[in-house]
Amino acid sequence: MASAAEQLASNLSFATFSKAKELQKRIVFTLGALLVYRFGTYIPVPGIDPAAYAQTFEQASQGLVGMFNMFSGGAVERMAIFALNLIPYITASIVVQVLTSASPKLEALKKEGESGRRKINQYTRYLAVIFSSVQGYGIAVGLEASQGVVIDPGWFFRLSTVVTLVGGTMFLMWLGEQITQRGVGNGISLIIFAGIVATLPSSIAQTLELSRTGALSSLAVFGLLILAIVVIAVIVFFERAQRRLLIQYPKRQVGNKMFQGDTSHLPLKLNTAGVIPVIFASSMLLMPATFISFAQPATGAESSWLQVVAALLGRGQPLYLALYASLIAFFAFFYTSIVFNPSDTADNLKKSGGFIPGIRPGERTASHIDYVLSRITVAGAAYLTIVALIPEVLVSQLNVSAFLGGTSLLIMVTVTLDTISQIQSHLIAQQYDGLVKRSRLGGKRRR
Fold first, then answer.
1. What DSSP designation does 45 have?
2. Are 148 and 49 spatial neighbours (Cβ–Cβ below 8 Å)?
3. CB atoms within 10 A of CB 386
4. C-alpha dihedral, 363 to 369 to 372 to 375, nearest 10°
5. Which of 34, 300, 311, 443 has the fewest CB atoms in 10 Å of its CB?
6. Integer angstrom CA distances of residue 82 from 178, 212, 242
7. CATH number at residue 291
8. Strand partners, 246
């Protein structure tokens, strides 16, 4: 089966694209929104000394802070108004989704349709404000603890920093929703994607500089390149992998005509959750790291527990890898259960007359779909864990940029495939509209 990218390449023509005015507007809007986001990553938080902060960041740029900086498109490195990026919103989404599964009231609210979904989204925004306020305050306190970074320490600086960072996160939430509604692709994922891609030139330059100075051998650089290519190929293969369940439809009689029973397939993706488990797991690990790595101990002998936690959560450390793998596996199953409901699918098949050969319609079909989905999700979770962890170990051992890790490559490839798929859908809709218009014109002429 051809991928979305292959189908788009075979069907796309300049004539088709030139006629898709709505798609052109959506692409232009998406690019404009991402440019606004990139501009915001260069606007610094007021009240800090950029030179002193650059030295402090250089000391704390390894580990999770470096990964956080990659997700924010370099905003942490410049302590910009978008330094928190969408991490508080993603964390709030995780909490709300967990509570929705555990709380009957929220579950009933979710089933109310569009109105219930809006209320749940509102709760998520409120929780995101709380999380971003806590993280913003932690960053403000951490900056004050760094020598010479804050020009005028005090409550006014803390309050202004919290308001600025919370406002930046809220603006990105709104911008992501606008991209989803008026642009192409998922807005939240595209903003994270843009932040990662923005670090590509500096990451390549950093790696080449390490090779030039002898800190990294040419063989290691070549190995990293081969590793990146292999990881991208593996991601594309597994993202396209599906388990297809055969669906049969009985014979139907319409009037005096007997229609033969039809067959189709129910596609179950190997990785139903997509890139969400990796983003969620990274967010959960990045949340405590926003201010831990900026806190400076009073003396070498009196290192606080914050520094101990920061050391244990460093990239490549056993605790970090164990927590990362556990969170990826958990969110792979959790998010799959949210986006795909076997009972609803079984009910829809029963209403349309479809059935799986050898399986009774109704509860038995739902149980069978759940059985198959659970087992392919095991493979999907293992794939996500391996792709995310193995490059992380190698990259952390070589002390190169976080961009070359499996997490960043997974997010980039997955978001690219999803965006291409949506562009293809718009083009197909454009072609169908053209066929319908031509058929109507042809009917009028015959009359």
1. P
2. yes
3. 16
4. -80
5. 300
6. 17, 33, 38
7. 1.10.3370.10
8. 265
Q: Are strands 252-254 and 242-248 parallel, antiparallel or unpaired?
A: unpaired
Contact 186, 415 (CB under 8 A): yes
| Alpha carbons 169 and 332: distance in angstroms, whole number | 26
Domain containing 202 equals: 4-446
> Which two three-digit tokens encode residue 240?
């396209």
Q: Which amino acid is at 21?
A: K
**H helix runs in 61-182, sequence order:** 64-71, 75-78, 87-102, 104-110, 114-145, 155-182
> Which residues on neighbouring strands pair with residue 245, listed in sequence order?
266
- What digits encode the pLDDT tens for the residues 10-60? 555 556 666 777 888 888 999 999 999 999 888 888 888 888 888 777 766
- What tens digit of pLDDT does each residue of 52-81 get? 888 777 766 555 566 677 777 778 888 888
Element (H, E) at 420: helix 406-446
Longest Cα–Cα distance of the chain, Å, equals: 93
CA distance linking residue 377 with residue 374, whole number of Å = 5
* Per-residue confidence (pLDDT) for residue 31, from 0 to 100: 92
pLDDT band at 174 (very low <50, low <70, confident <90, very high): very high
Convert the pLDDT of each residue in 382-398 to its tens digit: 999 888 887 677 666 66
Total structural domains within the chain = 1
Q: How many CA atoms lie within 13 A of 182 on its CB side?
A: 13
